[in-house]
Write a structure and sequence with these properties.
By secondary structure, this protein is α/β, with parallel strands linked by helices. The chain has 12 helices and 17 strands. The strands form 3 sheets. Strands 4-5-3-2-7-8-9-10 form an 8-stranded parallel beta sheet, with helices on both faces. α8 crosses α11 (376-391). The longest helix is centred in the first third of the chain and has 19 residues, at 13-31.
Amino acid sequence: MINFIVKKLLSNRVVYRIAKNAYESNKAATCNPANYDIPEITPFNFVKSNVNTRRINLFVPALSEKHVFGGIATALRFFEAIRHDFPLARIIVTDEVSVELKAGQFYSDWKLTDLSGADCAENCIVVAGNRSGASLNVAENDYFVSTAWWTAYNTFKALAWQSAMFGTQGRKSIYFIQDYEPGFYAWSSRFALADSTYAHAEQTIPVFNTALLKDFFINSGYVFNEHYFFEPRINPVLSAACEQAASVDKERKILVYGRPGVERNLFNIVVLALRAWAQAYDKAEQWTIVSAGESHADIELGRGVKLESLGKLTLDQYIHQLSTSSVGLSLMLSPHPSYPPLEMASFGIRVVSNGYANKKLSARSKNIIEPANFTPESIAESLIKLCEEHENASTVIYEDNLFSKETEFSFAKNIVQNILGE
């Protein structure tokens, strides 16, 4: 009787397919055990270098032209500001196995090598994405700057090895912190590892991207014996274009900062909010909604309205959208202020953005408002408010005080003296 039932079940194609898939999955799991490694923290093997000249080293995830924007570009500008006080400089690329350098950058004519070669007594770039069977040369007079959390993780390993090999106990490294990176992950192994990199007060000189971010760390109980921070400057091309933008008519257009691949930019909530806006706003079909930042399929919002994806824009394309859009939507669940809402507000766009912890952009700009909460309905209400203000011909305010006009890294000399113990 049992055999008869089994045969009948297996004759059912759906049941058979489920059973077959389960068998294949179990077989694959048996043949290929789960990999519990965390690739970002793949360890370096270190070997003694005979280069005696004082050298500053930058650990950075990537250096290819397609990656040199945003946080990496900012880190490179900082490195450029401090490297002139060192006879030698080296960039160690941790995540790429090959790089295509951006022409015209200060490092584009540097010697390019990998971990298999001897140490170079000149400015060079070491491509270290493949660390199998190779070693990173570390000298007594090497000093380090780390960027993303996993580069900091390996920097502390390098400091420990250097201390054991050369007796350099107490040497500090610079940690260039541009966001609260544990927040990029759910409560998880990566959350814990990222968080662990902030627990080296004696070895760390942190440099925070904005006072807001610095205050968040301090308010959250992180302890550093010393710290520096800088305020962002607007791109000079954007700054010049902003002065001309007042002569361009604002359209019925919502500019969205859309990055579906970056969780902290809350793209799902953005889409749900726009759908709620399209249903609730009686003039929604008269408006154009465009998404800039990351390519994605166009999204139907209802009532004939769609979110059109523009993807990653050139600077000229971005200026056009900033100049012609009247309303913006830019969310980021992070203590960092984020540049896009400030850039939009500078160009006279009324922006719906969010606060978080000690971040409150509405207190910084007349053009930024915050929804009561993160619900799509609340965000939609804020968008309707700004759309109606545009319909009522409210005054467009161009703000030129949202970015710093000071030297970006005015503390460069001080931090070099600090890391050298002078």
